[in-house]
Amino acid sequence: MQELIDYIKEYGTVLPHDVLKVDAFLNHQVNAQLMKHVGEEFAHRFAGEKIDHVWTVESSGIAPALMTALALDVLMIFARKHQSLTLKHDMYTAKAYSYTKQTTNNISISKKYVTPGENVLLIDDFMANGQAVNVMLEIAKTAGVHVVGVGIVIEKSFQPGGKKLREQGLRVESLAKIKSLADGKVSFVEE
Amino acid sequence: MQELIDYIKEYGTVLPHDVLKVDAFLNHQVNAQLMKHVGEEFAHRFAGEKIDHVWTVESSGIAPALMTALALDVLMIFARKHQSLTLKHDMYTAKAYSYTKQTTNNISISKKYVTPGENVLLIDDFMANGQAVNVMLEIAKTAGVHVVGVGIVIEKSFQPGGKKLREQGLRVESLAKIKSLADGKVSFVEE
Fold first, then answer.
1. B29 with A75: Cβ contact below 8 A
2. What's the pTM value of the predicted model, to 2 decimals?
3. CB spacing of B28 vs A113 below 8 angstroms
4. A120 touches chain B (CB under 8 A)
5. How far is CA A50 from the centre of its chain?
6. Mean pLDDT score of chain B
7. Rounded mean pLDDT, A50-78
8. What is the dihedral of CA B22, B5, B166, B146, to 10 degrees?
9. Closest C-alpha to B140, from B149, B153, B127, B152
10. For chain A, how many helices (H) and strands (E)?
11. In this complex, do B32 and A58 lie within 8 Å of one another by their Cβ atoms?
C-alpha cells in the first residue's frame, strides 16, 4: 500500500535492535485518515471472504481493526491483556510472552461475543515473531472459530512470524513488508 | 445522543458496585458504525472551536477518539499506560490511580507530538471520578497546551468527576448521562 509506505519513509525512524518506530502515525499519535484507508484496503483484499467479526489485541491494533470493521460493516473485538492469575470461566484466555517487555500476559476474549463456526479476520499493527496473532489463533482454535485470514499493517519480513503463518496455510496480507532495517535504513520487500 | 442511549438500554448490563457493563459495543466488542456516529457527534458539538489534536488514554478511549479525529480531520494521540519507574525525558508523564484495579500507572505522551499553545480536545469512553481526564489535564498544563473541552461517551453523573471539571470552567460534553444504576436499573439524566 503505497500511501502507508510513503508514511513509513517520511515519519518512521529506526532504533537499535531492529526497532521501527512509527509512533508518529500508527501506535501513539494516530493518523485517522490513513487508518481509514488501511481499513478499506483490508476490506478490499478480503472482499471475497465471508467475515463475521474482526479481532485484534489492545492497544495498537484497535485503530486499524476498528477501521477494517467499519469498512466491512461487522463488529470488532479487541482482546484484553491482563496479568491476573485467576481465569474466568466466561472468557477464552491464552498466554502471550512479550519480547520487548519480557513479561507474560493473559489475553482474553469474552465467550459471550464468540460464536462457534463463525468467520473471523485477525488484524494487528505489527508482525515480527507473530506473538499476538498466535494468541488469537489459539483462542480461535479453542472457541471453534474459523480464521479467514490475517491482516497486518507492517510486517517485518526478516523475522519469522509471517513465514510460519503462511506455512500453516493461513492467508496473511501485510500492507507494508519490511525487508531490512540494517544500518538504520528501512528497505521494503519489492512486490 | 439517542442512538447511544438506545444501545445502553438494549445491551448495557448493571453489575454490583455501580458498574455499567457496555462491553457489547464500546470497550471490548466495539460497534464501529456507532463509534463513527459518536465521533461525528463530538465534532458537531465542538464545531465552533479550533482543535489541533484529539487526546485520549489507551485502550478504551481509542475507538471514540479515533472517530472524533477522523470527523475533525486532525491527528489523535493515545497516551500510554506503563508501570516503569524510570521517567523518560522525552515524555510528559503523570500518575493515575485506578480504583477498579487498585494500581498506579504512569500515563505518558511523547513531547515530540505536543506543541505548546496548541488546542486539544480530550476524549474518553467513561467518566466516573474523572481520573483519566485529570491525568490528561495535568499533562496539558505541564506542556502548556490549551484544553478546548472534554468529550465523554458515557458519564456517570452520580459520581463527582464531571461536576468537578465543570466547576473548573471546563466544557464537558457527555453523549449519555447516567443518573443512577440503583436496583440494577439504568436511568438517564433528562435533558
1. yes
2. 0.97
3. yes
4. no
5. 19
6. 95
7. 98
8. 70
9. B149
10. 5, 11
11. no
